[in-house]
Amino acid sequence: MIKTISRTPLFKITSLNSVSVVLKIGSGLITSKLLAVFVGPGGMALVGNLRNFLTAVETVSTLGFQNGVVKYIVANKSNEKELQRIIATVFFSLIVASLLLSGLLFVFASFWNEMVFGHNYEYVAIFKILALALPWYAVSVILLAAINGLGKFKNVIRINIVGNIIGLLFSAIMILNFSTFGALLSIVIPPALLFFVTFHHINKEIHFTAALSLRLFDTQVIRDLSAYSLMTLVSSLCGPLVFLAIRSNIIANLGVEQAGFWEAINRLSTYYLMFISTILSLYFFPKLAFATSTKATKNVFRSYYFGTLPLFIIGLAILYFLRVYVVKTLFTHDFLPMADLFLWQLTGDLFKAASLILGYQFFAKKLTVAFIATEVFSLSLMYVFSFYFIDEFGIEGVVMAHALTYFIYLLVLGTYFRKQLF
């Protein structure tokens, strides 16, 4: 039985992915510890603001093509000419988009600084450095999506492992030497360095340089990808902006330290959700994209809900009972007030994990209108609930809003996909 399980593709991918995720979580926790010690809750809140802004910028620079690229490369991976047409079109589109966006970031760096950090902080140089790094990052994201679409899961995971190591070393050096400025710099630069690693791997699978010809550019590819682009842009652009607004509201009404506690619990949440999201993007999303019947889709859902999710629930339960120890170990005693946020945060993350695979079905089946409607609905709920509950319950209100939002979101998606689920 054990030998049979160990031979399954999911087990092999999960085993290698576990190494990548453990390394990423480990490097992230070390970085969080450094932030807690050297910049404190206030500095962590600023880091959170830049992360949200960067997510939005990176999404615009890649035109939201990632999931669409995976979908169409899965469909055409045996046709090298078609692959080159897709890659050429996406590559040249991204170069133009990222260069234009880089220009706006560089020229209006002071404006972005005030929008993200407010009047009291001067980090204009961060936005100018981001402008220089952005095109490299944008291309690496799409190359990674192409490798994923080709089914080279091990290569994707290896690239992520290298990225984690680069990120950890760079972050440690920057934070130790430049405190908050170094922490902000460590968010901006490492992702761009992944271009060179990703380029090495894609060149072994496809004649990538042969695809870099304007003759292969095809507007039909853009039209095919537009639905995926719109879905990703709505999700990855509106989401960070909503979180940026919520954090700014916390800073204005409760103080920058309280915003730092929320950022700390969000960072922790990101680490343990990483296992779920990586498995979904690497394994379950291509399966959903390939599923051509309700029965096949139902089997994919069943595999997730009865195989992956129960392990995640056990992990959440353990984390809750060890929460005070976790806060003391991963952060500092200054962060102990965030222990009160765990119950609602973990509850919300359980609902989020349960709904994630249903969200991927929107991309797999190109359900653009339904996805945008549910995404805007959930973000609106999060925004309204957060502002209301913060006034009523203080910082705990924002995690209560998180739990309630994802509970309603799961109910809505479960109702929409009821035929595939039941």
Description:
By secondary structure, the protein is mainly α. The protein has one domain (2-421). Helices cover 87% and strands 0% of the residues. It is built from 18 helices and no strands. The chain has helices spanning 2-6, 9-38, 40-61, 66-76, 80-107, 109-117, 124-149, 153-188, 190-205, 208-211, 219-253, 256-290, 294-321, 323-330, 342-364, 368-393, 396-416, 418-421. The longest helix has 36 residues, at 153-188. The protein is globular, with a radius of gyration of 21 Å.
Q: Secondary-structure element sequence? A: HHHHHHHHHHHHHHHHHH
Instruction: Write down the overall mean pLDDT.
Output: 82
**In angstroms, what separates the terminal alpha carbons?**
28 Å
Tally of structural domains:
1
Number of helices: 18
Helical content, roughly?
over 70%
Quickly give the structural class: mainly alpha
What value does the Rg take, in angstroms?
21 Å
Characterize the overall form.
Answer: globular
In the predicted model, the low-confidence regions spanning at least 5 consecutive residues are: 1-11
Mind summarizing the main beta sheet?
Answer: none
